[in-house]
Amino acid sequence: MHSDFALSLMAELFWTGLLVCLPVLGLTMLVGLLISIFQVVTQIQEMSLTFIPKLLTATITLVVAGPWMLRKLTQFATKLWTNIPQMF
């Protein structure tokens, strides 16, 4: 395996990981930011007010974007397995 091939494979791995994690992390972060702004404005400091909406957002995002995430991971794994003979 050549070093340039290994570097391109690692870049593709990190890019796939970022794409798969981005919907859940992005929406959860956005909901957390909105709830934090709401808490600052209303001066309500309740811990469950931040935890439960973020948990629901992550769950809904996984249900909605889950098939796409699984498809991306399956495509990457299939490409990796089919390219094994060219690696050596």
Automatic annotation (TrEMBL):
It is found in: Cell membrane; Bacterial flagellum basal body. InterPro entries: Bac_export_3, FliQ. It is a multi-pass membrane protein. The chain crosses the membrane at residues 12-39, 51-70. Keywords: Bacterial flagellum, Cell membrane, Cell projection, Cilium, Flagellum, Membrane, Transmembrane, Transmembrane helix. It comes from the Bacteria. Belongs to the FliQ/MopD/SpaQ family. NCBIfam families: fliQ. Role in flagellar biosynthesis. This is Flagellar biosynthetic protein FliQ. The lineage of its organism: Bacteria, Pseudomonadati, Pseudomonadota, Betaproteobacteria, Burkholderiales. The gene is fliQ.
